[in-house]
Amino acid sequence: MMEISEELVIEAGRTERHYWKDLWRYRELFYFLAWRDILVRYKQTVIGIAWALIRPLLTMVVFVFIFGKLAKLPSDGVPYPILVFSALLPWQFFANAIAEAGNSVVSNANMISKVYFPRLVVPASAVIVGLVDFLISGVLLGGLMLWYGVVPDWRIVTLPLFLAVAVVAAMGAGLWIAALNVQFRDFRYIIPFVVQFGLYVSPVGFSSAIVPEQWRLLYSLNPMVGVIDGFRWAILGGASQLFWPSILLSLALALALAISGVLYFRKMEKRFADVI
Amino acid sequence: MTTAITVENLSKKYIISHQPRERYRTLRDVLGNGAKRLAHKLAHPFAKPEDDATHETFWALKDINFNIEQGDRVGIIGRNGAGKSTLLKILSRITEPTSGRIKIRGRVASLLEVGTGFHPELTGRENIFLNGAILGMSKAEITRKFDEIVAFAEVEKFLDTPVKRYSSGMYVRLAFAVAAHLEPEILIVDEVLAVGDIHFQNKCLGKMQDVGKDGRTVIFVSHNTAAINTLCTRGIVLSQGKLEFAGNVEEATKRYLSQSSGSSTFRRPRQLSSGVQKTVEILDCKVYSSDKQDFIVCGEVTNFEIEYIAQQHNLSIQFLIGVYDVYNTCVLFLDTVALGLSSQYLPKSGRIVLSLSEDFSLFPGVYTVNVAAMLHEELIDHIPRALQIVVHGGDFFGMGRWPRGKPLVLVQQKWRVVENNAI
Q1: Which of the residues B34, B232, B354, B390 has an alpha carbon 20 to 30 A from that of B116?
Q2: Minimum CA–CA partner of A113 in chain B
Q3: Per-residue pLDDT tens for B352-368?
Q4: Residue A100 domain-assigned?
Q5: For the complex shown, is ipTM > 0.90?
Q6: Which residue in B96, B103, B106 is closest to A15 by CB distance?
Q7: Alpha carbons A252 and A26: distance in angstroms, whole number
Q8: Which candidate in B3, B5, B27 is best for mutational testing of the A interface (most A CBs within 10 A)?
Q9: In what order do the strands lie in the sheet with B217-221?
Q10: Residue A51 lies in domain
Q11: Has residue A168 got a pLDDT over 90?
Q12: Residue at which a domain ends, from B200, B228, B258
């Protein structure tokens, strides 16, 4: 006779209780999904890794030309390419992560309708995959800094902190989009617009110091503003100044986005298998 | 014996939309309808809110109660739409019940499909790990059983080839091999055996029997009554979302077979039609004997009839009827082109009838019938398992007894004896 390990009760509204325990139990699936996506991504495209480099590089060249050369915006005394690239890094991570996480549930529809696992695993692993591209572009930034002779000081150690804020914000937005995507199939058409719009609204091509003081707090309602400012502050060293209220506001908003995202996702998750 | 699964008053409700073209909701529609309703409300502030006539509730399962003891091998049978899949989905926690409760003791693994999560770009080796994780195995467990899985699937040579280059047989073998090496206390399996060649099917059946023998509980859903009879000890019959019978497996399959003689007609339900206007649509099909009974007896004329509607007159539509036995072997394949029907005038809407003479019959048993319509080599409409026919034993040879053996078909025979000329 076998040992019976556990008793499970299935009832309407019952999944709540063992959800977080299950999430822990399925952590290996989480690694495997992330691993699959990374593997597939770099297998499928011939230029695989190159693609992760070309995109930010070209965007940077265009931004340097438009904002630095044509508009002649101030660069706080650092080379303009570095100013742009240090912001592009977190922004592209955020943009890719919300797009990938947003589509992840619908594109894994088959798995969701056939196997049980905490659905949160799917968008979460999509966000993690975005980190790989982030690391690849990070190497590029290192190269650029060497080229221009920009040496970071002690503040560089705070970088993971700001990255964590970006991950939290991306996770929150990604969960919202993923759940809405299942509910409304035309929601995905909104995403590319939001991403494109966000690129110009966020201080990617310019320093947020050019935003007038009285609008600064309002501007920081975009959680990526704080993240980008933080990145610049950590990477560029002495030249850039940190506007603390903006950082704190971004952090609070990113957390609010993540918490509400998890709650909304959990609420809709139960119906995924029925409507997908 | 301890109880492995207790199901109490289980019900599941779905809401069916009758609006055609609306497979899933779009934000545009929701906003549009919301605005319309708001406008209506503003125009008639005191009118009662309109009933949403386009939606109808449908109980996929209604008040199901049963117990499964530990070590039981239970077959769940029922016709299409009887609620089998819904029950499986609830048991495997893919979807929640609307009401009622289930108590499960033991680790559950469910296999509603082979190869869930397989990625065509990944190699066989990579897919074993991925699929194992999706099915709930830990990495250590997969590593431990890796060689066994590979040997079972017989794909040693192709381990590092992306599965998109696999033949469909290899693909299915690999997928089943991973699943077969799960070691849950309760295994839930949905018709995955309807794949692969006979040799592999037998191997799978053997594996499942082994699983049952070491005290594990197996729940098996299938249309294949023969497989259910050999594999299972108990049977549960579902019919239109209700539990019809639970108990001994022979009794259960008998119930199911007697119930299934009624499905010799098929009428396309409204909600199943996709709403998109097809060039040809099969509306209805049925099978009947010479005296218009749905009781088919060996040695009598068997008629197949398909009612269709086309967009215009005289399209060169090709109708196909496939008859499959319980092992999913194609026993008969009937094609209107072969019959020379294509040269005849085909009205826009009508029926085609095929009669098989009494010189030929299927062996008594249960068969499923697939029907399809093709136009210029393109599949336009296809209804898998449209009919389930039961062929009853009769006096085919008119001699009051059966010949030896268990053939698939019976044919009237004329024998002659020719003597060799002596030298």
Answers
A1: B232
A2: B94
A3: 888 888 888 888 777 88
A4: yes
A5: no
A6: B96
A7: 29
A8: B27
A9: B108-111, B186-190, B217-221, B73-77, B234-239, B242-248
A10: 45-275
A11: yes
A12: B258
Mean pLDDT of B14-24: 59
Residues A264, B144: Cα–Cα separation, whole Å = 39
* pLDDT(A1) > 60: no
Give the predicted TM-score (pTM) of the model.
Answer: 0.73
Closest chain A residue to B105, measured at CA: A7
CB contact under 8 A, A10 and B97: yes
> What pLDDT shows up at residue B262?
47
Q: Which residues of A touch B129 (CB under 8 A)?
A: 32
Residues of A in contact with B97 (CB under 8 A): 10-12
CA closest to B6 among chain A residues: A9
Of A8, A29, A43, the CB nearest to B134: A29
Is A30 contained in some domain? no
With CB atoms and an 8 Å threshold, state whether A112 touches B130. Answer: no
B327 with B302, same domain? yes
**Two tokens, residue A160:** 């993971």
| Closest residue, chain B, to A121 (C-alpha) | B134
Q: Using the beta-carbon criterion (under 8 Å), do A2 and B26 form an inter-chain contact?
A: no
Q: How does DSSP assign B162-226, residue by residue? A: BGGGS-HHHHHHHHHHHHHT---SEEEEESGGGSS-HHHHHHHHHHHHHHHHTT-EEEEE-S-HH
